[in-house]
Amino acid sequence: MKYSLILALFVFGKIYSQDPIFTQTFLVPETINTSFTGALRSTKLGMIHRSQWTSFGVKINTNFLYMDSWFEGMKSGLGITLLNHTESKSKYSFNQINLNYALAIQLNEDWFVRPSVSVGFGFKDFGFQNMILEDQININTGLIIPNTMDPIALNESRTFFDFSSSILFNNENSWVGLTVKHLNRPNISMTQDGETPLDIFISAHANIEFPLYRFSNNSFSDKNSVYFLTNFMMQSKYSRLDIGSQYVYDNTFTLGFLLATNPLKTGLSNDFLSSFDVFAGIKWEGFKFGYSYDINTSRIGATGGVHEFSISYDFSVNLGYLNRYKCVRYF
Predict the structure, then answer these.
(1) Number of helices (H), then strands (E), in the chain
(2) What distance in Å separates the CA atoms of residue 54 and residue 180, rounded to the nearest whole number?
(3) Distance between CA atoms of residues 48 and 30, nearest Å
(4) Taking a C-beta distance cutoff of 8 angstroms, is the pair 51, 35 a contact?
(5) How far apart are CA 241 and CA 80, in angstroms?
């Protein structure tokens, strides 16, 4: 029984070695690419909360907070992010704090490149301190001793250093990016002498505008924008491809959808289409609010869906009056 429990925990540990993924990547792109640090030439802060699998017996909550600013003299952005990820059943928790730096370089009249680096520390905890092993129980007295001689002794927590990098290419209306996380392959093993390198996470993503205003001369068309969205992610043998579209009206309101697919058909289900995701956002007086809901389409069962809520604030409300050439456009 004891070793079955430990084996189960190791299985969970393998699942939790995968990075948390957000649906609102295109509303809060800081979650997927650190090159967006300072990209609006202003100071901004925000957060996103993700709640999933509420009806599956396992509730997972993920929170992401960020704050960054632009330094005109250095043509650079500097920011900090906090990630918190918890699971109700196993009491697993993961926290990470990162410092991000991005540099803006002009390639030609229309295009810019923004390389970035991110360094931080991660903290994993499985709550093993609450688990009692066989040799800790004195069957004669019923007392519990604090130490164990079990060869598979588990640490209560694991701390590690992490290094990642991203790059972003953008013009006035569209952008294409690449992110590679965990370049140093940090050890995340929960055993005392274990060695479990964290798998590298790769994401290739793009937001491409369809210029509707070019096909009409009326002023209403100038206020409408439609974008093609795509984000391919891979970590170890697991992969995911999101494709969809986003509509933006007058840079104040947006609606969009994503099809979350499983190209290699790996994971808990081998279905090609994992979920249908919808999202919406609105801007008001420097604030931006977002909501998304993921509708499960796989054979996993009734999961209760995935809800995401986001809020951010841009301290430069009159951003439109700034020089646009150094800015990345996104809702």
Answers:
(1) 2, 15
(2) 30
(3) 11
(4) no
(5) 27
Can you tell me whether residue 6 is helix, strand or coil? helix
End-to-end Cα, the chain, rounded Å: 52
Instruction: Retrieve residue 224's tokens.
Output: 């409408």
Hey, is 173 helix, strand or coil? Answer: coil
CA distance 107 to 95: 37
Q: What are phi and psi of 326, to 5 degrees?
A: -105, 5
What is the pLDDT tens value at each position of the chain, 331 positions in all? 344 344 344 444 444 467 899 999 999 999 999 999 998 888 999 999 999 876 666 678 999 999 999 998 899 999 999 999 988 766 788 999 999 999 999 999 889 999 999 999 999 887 555 554 454 444 444 444 455 544 445 556 789 999 999 999 999 889 999 999 999 999 888 777 778 889 999 999 999 998 765 555 655 567 888 999 999 999 988 899 999 999 999 889 999 999 999 887 665 567 788 889 999 999 998 899 999 999 888 766 566 679 999 999 998 765 554 554 456 778 8
Domain ranges within the chain, ordered by starting residue: 2-326
Name the pTM for this structure: 0.82
In this structure, are residues 308 and 48 in contact, taking their beta carbons and an 8 Å threshold?
yes
Cα–Cα dist 331/179, whole Å: 20
Phi and psi angles of residue 153, each rounded to the nearest 5 degrees, phi first: -75, 135
- Fold classification of 2-326 (topology level): Porin (2.40.160)
Distance CA 83, CA 97 (A): 6
Token pair in block for residue 87: 């699971």
> Regarding beta strands 224-235 and 201-210, do their DSSP bridges make them parallel or antiparallel, or are they unpaired?
antiparallel
